[in-house]
Amino acid sequence: MLITIIGRGHGGTRAMSHTLSASGVFMGEPLNESGDLLPPEPMYEACRVFAKYVTYRGGLVWDFSRALDGPIDPAFTRLVEQFLTTVLRSDAANRGWKLPETTLVLPWIVRMFPDARYIYWSRDPRDSILGAHLTDDLGDFGIAYDRTDDVRLRRAISWRYQWEIMRATPSPEHRRDVRFEDFVLHQEPTLQRIEEFLGIPLARIPVRAESVGRWRADTGQHDFGFFPPEALYG
């Protein structure tokens, strides 16, 4: 079984990666402290290849139709397979990977690995944009947008782009949506749902309730009108 975690950086995806590793799932090697598969550079370059097939319409509108309907660029396939070398060569019964930048190329990942188990991970964007992440500037991955020097706004736009690409991608056959907040505040029932989805027992890792709702104590701008209400937690 192949498993991947889809979600923006600073979305709490490391909690799921650590859970899978603690449960005997081979998540590739080496890993960093966030549970990301290293080295990430081939996937970063794959993101730039994919970005050439996304048309920017202005504002917060990106057209993914070329990526959804056209062939996958062979360079992309080569780079992803290079990134996943240790995972794809492993003979482990259960294997997978986590790297937030995977979300930037989700349409082609789903087409490359249609039988994989996809965990779609989300977190209240007001918390997600509080910390810096490599994907904050979409331009670093070749994605066009109206760049701004406002750091929080830049992070919020990046969050919106990733929300849009997850919505635009046809849902894989094996998909389970999980909220970080539910994983933290209601860990047992949430893990039971994931266990049913994966068909394997999962370890319980320590979680901290104070990681939910950090935006409430934040003094900077953390709320933007283009955050959809259904993405907010409480």
Task: Provide structural commentary.
The protein has 234 residues and is α/β, with parallel strands linked by helices. The chain has one domain (2-231): Rossmann fold. It contains ten helices and six strands; from the N terminus they run βααββαααβαβααβαα. The protein has helices spanning 13-22, 41-51, 65-69, 74-83, 85-89, 106-112, 125-128, 151-168, 180-185, 187-198; strands at residues 2-6, 55-58, 61-63, 95-98, 117-122, 175-179. The protein has a four-stranded parallel beta sheet with strand order 4-1-5-6. Strand 2 and strand 3 form a beta hairpin. Helix 2 packs antiparallel against helix 4 (74-83). The termini are far apart.
In short:
With 234 residues, the chain is of the alpha/beta class.
Which secondary structure elements does this structure contain, and how are they paired or packed?
Layout: E1 2-6, H1 13-22, H2 41-51, E2 55-58, E3 61-63, H3 65-69, H4 74-83, H5 85-89, E4 95-98, H6 106-112, E5 117-122, H7 125-128, H8 151-168, E6 175-179, H9 180-185, H10 187-198
Parallel strand pairs: 1-4, 1-5, 5-6
Antiparallel strand pairs: 2-3
Helix pairs in contact: 2-4
Descriptive terms for the model:
234 residues, alpha/beta, Rossmann fold, two-stranded antiparallel ribbon, 10 helices, 6 strands, 38% helix, globular
- Widest beta sheet: strand line-up: 4-1-5-6
CATH architecture: 3-Layer(aba) Sandwich
At the first level of CATH, the class is Alpha Beta
Q: Helix fraction?
A: 25-40%
What's the alpha carbon Rg, rounded to whole Å?
17 Å
Describe the biggest sheet? 4 strands, parallel
Please give the number of β-strands: 6
**Approximately what portion of the residues adopt beta-strand conformation?**
5-15%
* Poorly predicted ranges: none
What name does the CATH topology carry?
Answer: Rossmann fold
- What is the molecular shape? globular
Q: Counting H and I runs of at least 4 residues, what is the number of helices?
A: 10
One letter per element, helices H and strands E, the order comes to EHHEEHHHEHEHHEHH
Task: Kindly report how far apart the N and C termini lie.
Answer: 35 Å
Q: State the secondary-structure class.
A: alpha/beta
How many structural domains can be distinguished in the coordinates?
A: 1
Overall pLDDT level: 97
